[in-house]
Amino acid sequence: MKRSLPLAMLLALSLAPAARAANEADYKAAYATAEAASKEAAGLRNQWTTTVATLAAARKAADGGDFDRATASAREAEALAKASIFQATTEKDAWKAMEIR
Amino acid sequence: MKTRSALLLGSLSAALAAFALTSPRVIAADKVDPVADAKAFQNFFFQKFPEVKHEDFVNGPYSMNADMKRQWQEKEEFPPYEFALDAGKEMFATPFKNGKTYADCFPNGGVGIRQNYPYFDEKEGKVVTLELALNRCREANGEQPYSYVKDEMASLTAYMAFTSRGKPMEIRIPDDPRALAAFENGKRYFYTRRGQMNFSCASCHVQSPGERIRAEVLAPALGILNAMPIYRSEWSGMGTISRRFVTCNSQTRAVPLEPQSDEYRDVEYFLSYVANGLPISGPGARP
């Protein structure tokens, strides 16, 4: 029993997916997704300044070879862009609730 | 069987009657009615601030705060927009290279007409603002257009506003579905939340006029354009209506639209129309 516990733990650890550093391919995929969402937001005339700034930060980090940071920024930009799309979509009708009648 | 048919027929009639009674209300709510909108808009502010004289709303935050108003009245003896006003007057009178002047492009030689802008151009099917008309005048006379957010445009509009001071805003909406659509589009833009801050124009200028946002006292939306262009101490310079819209968007963390885009033209049309009857007070000065 005493010997089997460490063995079981070792086995479990070996099977667990190890967190690995992001590489250029991860960054490029994340950036492409974020950029597509950002373009959709711009098409809805509802781009956020923070989306643009976060995309720029992703590019800057990637230029410096920091793909962990670049990928994280790209994913954040995607989330911001998606939030702006959601805002534009819901506001198509929601604005009427604010109207002075 | 007969009972069932009678019940069915009765239900159908009741449903039809209910539809007939409710549908006109739905249509009426969606109908574009600028006169009713302007009345409701003005009443909202008149009732919210019963102590403010109606013509005083055009003085923005000064109508909301007695201390600020006193300071502003003293500042008005040597107003910070005076340089822009002098520059605008000179620019307005200076002929273009072809010998013509701005006066040739506008009714009444461009004097005392600010209260009629923006107007709906039925030929173009779009709203034309004073800033746009000024640049079109320049281009028609072989001159380069001015930036919509810089000093030259602010100086020219300052002078034109000054020649209209005290005249009531008088915006017309012609009987043209495109004009009504432009008004409605402007209204939609005004009330739509945007930017990461999730603010609409109305969040500040309808829900919170008189309140502070950081160090600033928010101006009421009613008559907000009557004072344009303005000298803003925050900008250390003059600002046009275009600059005001661009800055407002940036402050809510929304990427501003291009100056004189359809949305900006339409929201100017809406805000000016609902201020009909209130005096032109531009050029103004703001903290």
Describe what you observe in this structure.
The complex is a heterodimer of chains A (101) and B (287). Chain A has 101 residues and is mostly helical. Chain A has a domain at 20-89. In chain A, 74% of the residues lie in helices and 0% in strands. Chain A is built from four helices and no strands. The longest helix of chain A has 28 residues, at 67-94. Chain A is elongated, with a radius of gyration of 21 Å. The mean pLDDT of chain A is 90. By secondary structure, chain B is mainly α. Chain B has one domain (36-287): Cytochrome Bc1 Complex, Chain D, domain 2 (Orthogonal Bundle). Helix content of chain B is 46%, strand content 7%. In chain B, the strands form three sheets. Chain B has a three-stranded mixed β-sheet. Chain B has a two-stranded antiparallel sheet with strand order 1-2. In chain B, strand 1 and strand 2 form a beta hairpin. The longest helix of chain B has 29 residues, at 2-30. Chain B is globular, with a radius of gyration of 23 Å. The termini of chain B are far apart.
Features:
heterodimer; A: 101 residues; mainly alpha; elongated; B: 287 residues; Cytochrome Bc1 Complex, Chain D, domain 2; 3-stranded mixed beta sheet; two-stranded antiparallel ribbon; globular
Give the arrangement of secondary structure elements.
The complex is a heterodimer of chains A (101) and B (287).
Chain A lengths: L3 H12 L8 H20 L5 H15 L3 H28 L7
Chain B lengths: L1 H29 L3 H15 L17 H10 L6 H12 L25 E3 L4 E3 L1 H11 L10 H12 L14 H15 L9 H5 L6 E2 L2 E2 L12 E3 L4 E3 L1 H11 L10 H12 L10 E3 L1
Helix pairs in contact in B: 4-6, 7-10
